[in-house]
Amino acid sequence: MQCIQRQRKRSRSETLVHEAHSKRAIRHNASLLGMEGDPDLKFLLTGGDLLKVRSRSWKKTRFYKLQEDCKTMWHESQKKLRSAKNFTLEDIAAVRAGRQTEGLRKYTDEAVEGRAFSILFKGRRKNLDLIASSEEEAKLWVSSLEKVIGNMNNLNRQQKSEHWIYNCMLKADKNRDNKMSHKELKSFLHHINIEVDDDYAKMLFEKCDQSKCGYLDGKEIEHFYEILTQREEIDVIYAAYAKTNGLMSAQNLLDFLLSEQRETVTLNEAISIIEKCELDESAKEKKLMTKDGFLMYLHKPESMVFNPAHNKVYQDMSQPLNHYFISSSHNTYLMQDQLKGPSSTEAYIRALMKSCRCVELDCWDGSDSEPVIYHGYTLTSKILFKDAIKAIKEYAFKTSEYPVILSLENHCSVEQQKLMAYHMISILGSALVTKPLGDKMPTCFPSPEELKGRFLIKGKRLNKLEAIFSPEAQGEGDESVTEEEESADEEAEDKNEDKPKLKLAKELSDIVIYCKSVHFHGFEDAQKSLSFYEMSSFKEGKAVKLAEESANDYIRHNVDKLSRIYPAGLRTDSSNYNPVPLWNGGCQIVALNFQTPCSEMDLNQGRFLQNGMSGYILKPAYLRNAESEFDPITLTRGEWLQHKVLHIMVISAQQLPKMNKKKSSIVDPLVRVEIFGVPADVSEKETEHIENNGFNPTWNENFQFDVYVPDLALVRFVVEDHDSTSDNEFIGQYTLPFKSLQNGYRHVPLLNKNGDILPAAGLFIHIMALDAE
């Protein structure tokens, strides 16, 4: 009996310790998020039951609750035998109220509209469709999740780092006594991706264990944290400029900004930086910056490697539409491969939210007289054409306000083509361009500025656009083609075969205004016979051949006309081709499979990172000049030749994640710097790998690159986990235009394979782009 009482007493004591530990963790994390005492955070921490929906027959109650790290959502079924599952708020791409996903629309009734909501994840993870017990509760879940996610996204990299390290410490404290034993310290170091031998771990532990009691507590853990997070490379830089009693005055900071960062700033701006970044109020009053304030400045978004001036639309948007590179997607409806992968309206939403401005709709006759979208003659699933148009309308201009081109691959009967036209006109309304802008026949494209918030249709047209103003100017009606017909015609020409043409509904033809699809019969024929609005699509192989063998002709063609490039049909896995040679040739619509994570999509994301992520990038002047002599292959002298020498010192990395959770080994990171652009500029250089340290590896390796055409160059930083027996494992990357680089000491954020930010990870580099002598 006494034994049972002692066990109960010990159990109650442990429970109280655990509760105190949990409350302390919640207070710390809530404070970091700026949400102490916040009712929305409290609601999520309390949690509640939600109905999870997978199908008409599979609807089951699950309990959802935010964990004490204020970052991880935990849920379990009512069957206690089943294990609980987690996902982090950082995994969430969006939270949508109502029946906005295909699953909820398909498997639930309109009666639950106000109680339904969905959590959409980054990458290929399936949506989480949920139904709350009341409309009020559903609104509370949506608003609370959005609020916490918003606050988390507003943390700078240093704050995210502190959040991550603190919660790794919590996980290492197995018995939740707020103390750290030697064994727990070893576990913690392994958890944060750093391997140390027993002697070093023992030395580190004894250095911090000032009370000599065999565990770290309170101030000792703080001391351990300070040792762990010390940035020696920052200490050296700070010490070189902290000339005012060991601190950095406004003048000292100005000297650093002018000498190292090569920024054009004033003393008043240096004072303003101190006021924004300095954490020590006493130092701030004296207009001094401590080392912590200096580190805070280096972590600010405007201090990163990407020029903050390029975060907004800064280019001239009043040029004709064909004078821009346009972010473009191929087979936009697919979530995966093009043989048996699912089609989804969600794929359109994801592409549009990534600033894609040209999406593809592969249209076929559907049952019930409703046209559908899918990859024809394959096992890919189908979606209704009208559902795709509705999704496009709702999400087209949330990221960018500039025009969206709907590229139609039309395989429908005349009757269903009429329905396609009806759906686009009725759903898109006045946003759809159904006639040329102005009162007379245009001679060139309107600008992105003039077309803000508008939709253009790319497809076949029965006659010339001039017929709208002059009925006698009908032109040839059988010249319009789809890209698949263009591809098939190439094969038919090789076999001397004729291919029958698809009949076209007048209603659909009439809304094709600025993007009429036509055959390409050579540059000379295009110049003589085609109007500015008549454009051709090129399969990647033919396009690359033209870009390599007839580069200047291709560039001049693209000064007047639009060109769309698309992947070869043999890419059944939805892989991608290198878009850079096509951009070098002035091609505007270089369409890629957005659904496929790959280095080519990294380049596309990097190219369109600038200009406010508008999806439009103004081509350099020599790609907009009909008399241009520019040839990216031969690279003769001209305005494009602006030889730069790029010096990059890869200094260190911070908190690189272990991507393969099944491997027990620690990351052995290396960094590769790649340059893409004209052939003369293409280059890459790589650091040595650092063994067993993904937490704070240091390289201090210097690289030098010659860049001859900086307008077209992209710089890509890649971090990999070295493996001597197999291929290196990808950790993260960051790609940006050469002309968006900032000089000096800069942090480089890292993106995962899906193009999403790795919250606490990054590189620290020194960069200097100089004119060649």
UniProtKB/TrEMBL annotation:
Residues 43-150 form the PH domain. Its main location: cytoplasm. Residues 627-752 form the C2 domain. The active site is at H330, H375. Ca(2+) 5 binds at D721, D723. Residues 475-495 have a biased composition (Acidic residues). Transmembrane segments: none annotated. Keywords: Calcium, Cytoplasm, Glycoprotein, Hydrolase, Lipid degradation, Lipid metabolism, Membrane, Metal-binding, Repeat, Transducer. Residues 1-11 have a biased composition (Basic residues). Substrate binds at residues 52-79, 458, 460, 537, 564. The keyword Calcium applies. It is found in: Cytoplasm; Membrane. Binds 3 Ca(2+) ions per subunit. Two of the Ca(2+) ions are bound to the C2 domain. One of its GO terms (cellular component) is plasma membrane. One of its GO terms (molecular function) is calcium ion binding. Its EC number is 3.1.4.11. It is a peripheral membrane protein. GO terms for biological process: intracellular signal transduction; lipid catabolic process. Residues 1-21, 472-500 are annotated as: Disordered. Ca(2+) 4 binds at I666, D668, N692. Its cofactor is Ca(2+). Residues 12-21 have a biased composition (Basic and acidic residues). This is Phosphoinositide phospholipase C. It comes from Chanos chanos.
